[in-house]
Structure formats: structure tokens, C-alpha cells
Predict the structure.
Amino acid sequence: MNAQTLISVAISVVAILVISFRQLAWRRFVPRKLVILPLFLLVCGVCLGAAAGAGALVSTAGALDVVLIVVQLALAVGAGLWMGRCVEIAPHDGALATRLRPAGLGIWFGMIAIRLGLDGVAHLIGAHLAGSIALILLMLGVAKGTQGVVIALRVRRAVPEPEPAAQYAR
């Protein structure tokens, strides 16, 4: 490994740890924040894939690539659904707030570990598209996006509908 690779790995690990542990603190619920991180990860994954020539990889993708990508997609959606259920939603300091329980953080780290393991398997069996770094970012974006959808639906159910205004009541 060269110095550039080590620096990239170190930055990635620090970013994942910061993102991960920030989720454990109570934060005011802001719906747009459910979209920002998943969208960022998806855009980074697409850009990284385009820069790395993923188009050439797609044209040579085989059945093993497709199978591993489907498995990774199912893993990402499943982890996102589960993490979304592990989020606490409660009134906090006069507003609705959310935080991820430690079990959700375990799911997040487990998904990342499994994804990295699948990356190793993909490279060993020659499924280079399924093992691309761009796909890692895409799958993390799918997981966080799915988590955001679950949280939004749970918040929607947790907040009671406003009572009709007096002017509309008869």
C-alpha cells in the first residue's frame, strides 16, 4: 500500500466513525436531513464510478456481478429498514427529535463489514463491478435512504393530525 491509499483509508474510517457516532445523540428532526447524506453518498458513488470507468466494467459485467449486486442491494435495503426501526423518536426540548439506538449502530457497522467482505469475495471471483468502491458508496446511500424513509413514515404516524380550524367547524 502506498501513502495515498493509507491516507484515503484513514479519511474514510474517520468519516464513517464521525457519521456513525453523531447518530447516537438526540437531534432535532429536520426532514431534509433524511435526504442529504443518502443523496451525497449516491452522487459520490456515481461520480467515482464514472471517474473510474465503471462504464467499461458494466459492459463486461457477468452473472456473478449481477448476483453479488442484487445481494448487496438486498442487504442495504434490509439494513436500512432495520436501522430505521432502531431510531428513537420523541419530543425533546420542545421539538420532535430522533436518535439511533446502539443496536442500530451495530447494524450499520455490521452492514459495512459484510459489504467489505463481499467486496473481497467479488475481487477473488473476478466480479470487478460488484467489488468496486463506487458500489460501496451506492449501497451505503441506499441503506441510509431506506432508513430515512422508515424514519419519515414513523414520524408521520407519531405526530397527530392537526385539529380542523374553528372556521371550518360547523
In short: The chain has a mean pLDDT of 84. The chain has one domain: 3-159.
